[in-house]
Design a protein that fits this description.
The protein contains eleven helices and twelve strands. The chain has 287 residues and is an alpha/beta fold.
Length: 287
């Protein structure tokens, strides 16, 4: 839990590669303005600095010396940072990845708010959706957080399918000990899994502008399926567009990006920000 010390100004940063266009800094700074605190959010772009993950120890030491209150961490640092931290939250331990680091009294504690972002977005937009059988497409870094969130939301049976079955198996093996036996399994037949499902989640990058298309044949969709996305650029992916045309209940990936940010802000400052400020800023940036 974040310390509730009476600070009125905060210095935070984002470490990752290719983050020049990140929406995170302006969303955090707008939320801080609304909360009446000073908040400077710096981008530490490994691409611009011509650095790799091997620079993480040096960057973390510099952040401590310069009085940073926290850091967000993105690709390719979410796993590489683990052994460099003083402590991990239970969620970060479970997921084997960190996207938020709180710095207090010279100690660095790693958290993962990605799973919270998906779960909160789902709770707010898909209340009452059936959670008996769900198919998750994709078992990469984001896929682990999404699977954890779906389990926390109460999915009874989650089938994870990936083009690399070994990745799907790793997610199942990693999370299964934390949940009731039989709730997680690897799938191989997309058509059969979707036919038996209440809902599907796209946790792959397919649908992004850089990776156009859909993660499954759209002929497998039907009106009584709900469909959730993690892609938020664009907000309406080809998958969501097709699902909505069929009458499926859907949720886009924008809220996941926003709510992982609101939770990180809370961890940094001890203040729960107004999500509407995050949403409004997100929209002005082309969301």
């Amino acid at each position: 839990m974040p310390s509730m010390h009476p600070k009125s100004s905060f210095l935070v940063g984002l470490i990752g590669s290719g983050i020049a266009a990140s929406r995170t800094p302006p969303m955090h700074e707008a939320a801080a303005d609304a909360a009446g605190i000073r908040y400077l959010y710096k981008k530490i772009d490994l691409t611009e600095l011509k650095l790799g993950v091997e620079a993480l120890p040096e960057l973390l030491t510099a952040a401590k010396r310069m009085g940073f209150d926290g850091l967000n961490v993105t690709h390719p640092c979410k796993q590489a940072i683990l052994p460099l931290l003083d402590e991990l939250s239970p969620d970060a331990q479970a997921l084997g990845a960190v996207n938020t680091v709180v710095i207090r009294n010279g100690r660095m504690t790693g958290h993962n708010t990605d799973w919270f972002g998906f779960a909160e977005n789902f709770r707010r937009n898909m209340a009452g959706a059936p959670l008996g059988r769900v198919v998750q497409l994709g078992a990469g870094g984001a896929g682990v957080a999404v699977a954890f969130a779906l389990m926390k939301l109460g999915v009874e049976e989650l089938t994870i399918i990936d083009v690399d079955p070994a990745k799907a198996q790793n997610v199942v093996d990693g999370l299964s000990p934390r949940f009731a036996e039989g709730r997680l399994k690897v799938g191989h037949d997309v058509a059969a899994a979707v036919a038996a499902a209440d809902g599907i989640v796209n946790a792959t990058p397919i649908g992004m502008d850089k990776y156009p298309g859909t993660p499954l044949p759209t002929g497998l969709l039907r009106a009584d399926l709900w469909v959730a996305e993690i892609v938020y650029f664009p907000l309406e992916t080809a998958l969501l567009r097709t699902a909505r045309a069929l009458g499926c209940r859907t949720v886009d990936g924008g809220g996941m990006a926003i709510f992982q940010g609101t939770e990180a802000f809370r961890l940094f400052t001890g203040i729960s920000p107004d999500p509407d400020v995050f949403f409004a800023t997100f929209a002005t940036l082309g969301g």
